[in-house]
Amino acid sequence: MLQTPATNIGQLPPEMLDFTILKSTGSLAPRLGRLSLPGRKTVLTPAFIGNTSRGAIPHISQDNFRKCGGLEGVYIPLEDFIEKHPQKTPPIFKIEARDPLRKFIALPNDTFTVLGARRSPPISTPVAHTNTEISLLTSVGFRSMTSEYYAAAACKLQPDIVVGLADIPFGQEVVGTKRKDKMSDRTEMWLRDIIAKKNGMGEEERKFNIFAPILPIERDLQSWYLEHLLDDMVDKISGVAIYDAYLLDDLPDELHHLPRLSFHVPASPQELLRQVSLGMDLFTIPFINFASDAGIALDFTFPPPAKIGDSPRQALGIDMWDPELAVSVTPISGGCTCNACTKHHRAYIQHLLSAKEMLGWVLIQIHNHAVLDSFFTSIRASIEAGTFDADVATFSAFYEPQLPDKTGQGPRVRGYQFKSEEHGKSGKKNPKAYKKFDEEKIVQLRAAHGQNKAVRDLVDDEALVGLVGMTDMEGVKLDGVALGEDEVKA
Ligand SMILES: [Zn+2]
C-alpha cells in the first residue's frame, strides 16, 4: 500500500513522519522505502542508523560526525542520560531550548533522532520490571523508571521518533506463558501512556512520532496487545520496533505499511541480509562498534567480487593488530573512499593502536561506517535490480559466516558495556594502565640511570679498561701493570 507521496511534505504538520514503500514483492520479501521527516535528510531504506553511546557514536567526536558515512539518523537510549538517584535532575532535562536533545548531544540539524529506553543491545538487569516500571542500567548503576517518567522525558526532549516502552525480560533464557501474558498487558498499557502524554501536549510544543514495539513472542501470546493496537492505536503510531525479525510473519497486515526498525541484534552481515530479505527497513548495528573496539576493520562488499577458482572463503574484516600489517603501507581496503583509507595506511593505524592513541579507533570506526554505508547502498540497488536473492547466495558463498575474532586489546571499557552477570565477577575489567616494575626490572632501570652502586662500579670498570686500551682482558697479566690492593699495603 502506498502512503502519501513525499511531495506533500510541505502540507504535513511539522513533525509528521512520512514513509513510502517504493518497491515490495510480498509480505515476507525485501522492500525499498523512503522515510521523510520535515527538516531532516530523506532516508532510503533499507538503511542503518548510528548507535550512540552517551549521545555520540563511539570514537566519533561531533566535528568528525560528517566524515562518518551515511548517518542520516541516530538511536539514543535514555538510560545513558538519567541518574541513579531519582531526586537529582539529570543535566539533559535542564536544557531550555527548542530541540533540547539535539542541542545536548550537538547533533546536526538534518539528522533524525530516535529515542528508546534501553541501549542496543540492552544489558540484563537484576531487578524485574513491575506493572508501572522497567528496570534500567544507567551509566552509574541500576534503577527503575516509570512509564510516566519515560513519556514525560519524551515530551521534554522532543526527539523525532520515540520507541514505546516494551516489557521484555532481556537476558532471561526461558520466559513462561504467564510472564508472556504480562509482557503483552504491560506493553499495551505503556503504549497508551505515551500516546496519552503526546495528546496532552500543547499546540506550540514539538511533537514526536511513536514507534510501537512488537514483542519477541508468538502472535497468539501478544494477541491482547495487538488487538488493541489495531483497534484504537494504529492511527497514533508511525512505525513499529521489531525485537525478533524471524516473527515478522506474525505481523498483522494492518501494520505492513509502517516502517520497521529492528532491535533484533545481528551478529554478522549475513544476518543483516536475512533480516532485509524478510522486509526489515531500519537497523541499529551494534557489531560495528564491537568490531571497531576490537581493532577489526570491516572488509566486505555486496555483491562480493568474482570468486577466483577454488579460493577459500574471505574474512569479513581485517584484524588491524596482525603483526604482518606493521609494514603494510596500503589503505585498509583498496576500493574504500572513506577518510581513513584515502589518507592513511594500515601500518600507521596499527602503530596508533599499539600506542593506545585514540585516533586509531577513530579511523577504524570511520572506515567501518563507510563499509556499512556502501553495503546498504548496494543492497538497495540489488533489490531494485531484482537480483537480491542471487546476490545474497554469492555473498554467503564468498565470505566466512562470522566476523574475525578479537586478538588485540580494545580501548578502556565502561561498566555499562558489560553484561550484568560479568559485573559480579572478581578481577579487573580493564588491565592496570600503570603498575610497579618487578625487582629485576628496577635494578636494570636504575643501572641505566646510573643509580645502582653495584652495577655502576661494573660500568666504571669497563670504561676504565677501554681507556687504557686493554680491550682484551684474557691472557693479560694485570698484576705487574696495575697496583693491586695487596701491593699498596705492602
Ligand atoms: Zn575505508
TrEMBL record:
<dbReference type="GO" id="GO:0046872">
    <property type="term" value="F:metal ion binding"/>
</dbReference>
<feature type="binding site">
    <location>
        <position position="338"/>
    </location>
    <ligand>
        <name>Zn(2+)</name>
    </ligand>
</feature>
<feature type="binding site">
    <location>
        <position position="336"/>
    </location>
    <ligand>
        <name>Zn(2+)</name>
    </ligand>
</feature>
<comment type="function">
    <text>Non-catalytic subunit of the queuine tRNA-ribosyltransferase (TGT) that catalyzes the base-exchange of a guanine (G) residue with queuine (Q) at position 34 (anticodon wobble position) in tRNAs with GU(N) anticodons (tRNA-Asp, -Asn, -His and -Tyr), resulting in the hypermodified nucleoside queuosine (7-(((4,5-cis-dihydroxy-2-cyclopenten-1-yl)amino)methyl)-7-deazaguanosine).</text>
</comment>
<feature type="domain" description="tRNA-guanine(15) transglycosylase-like">
    <location>
        <begin position="30"/>
        <end position="399"/>
    </location>
</feature>
<dbReference type="InterPro" id="IPR028592">
    <property type="entry name" value="QTRTD1"/>
</dbReference>
<keyword id="KW-0819">tRNA processing</keyword>
<dbReference type="GO" id="GO:0006400">
    <property type="term" value="P:tRNA modification"/>
</dbReference>
<keyword id="KW-0862">Zinc</keyword>
<feature type="binding site">
    <location>
        <position position="367"/>
    </location>
    <ligand>
        <name>Zn(2+)</name>
    </ligand>
</feature>
<dbReference type="GO" id="GO:0008479">
    <property type="term" value="F:tRNA-guanosine(34) queuine transglycosylase activity"/>
</dbReference>
<comment type="similarity">
    <text>Belongs to the queuine tRNA-ribosyltransferase family. QTRT2 subfamily.</text>
</comment>
<comment type="subunit">
    <text>Heterodimer of a catalytic subunit and an accessory subunit.</text>
</comment>
<dbReference type="InterPro" id="IPR002616">
    <property type="entry name" value="tRNA_ribo_trans-like"/>
</dbReference>
<dbReference type="Pfam" id="PF01702">
    <property type="entry name" value="TGT"/>
</dbReference>
<keyword id="KW-0963">Cytoplasm</keyword>
<feature type="binding site">
    <location>
        <position position="341"/>
    </location>
    <ligand>
        <name>Zn(2+)</name>
    </ligand>
</feature>
<protein>
    <recommendedName>
        <fullName>Queuine tRNA-ribosyltransferase accessory subunit 2</fullName>
    </recommendedName>
</protein>
<dbReference type="GO" id="GO:0005737">
    <property type="term" value="C:cytoplasm"/>
</dbReference>
<dbReference type="InterPro" id="IPR036511">
    <property type="entry name" value="TGT-like_sf"/>
</dbReference>
<dbReference type="InterPro" id="IPR050852">
    <property type="entry name" value="Queuine_tRNA-ribosyltrfase"/>
</dbReference>
<keyword id="KW-0479">Metal-binding</keyword>
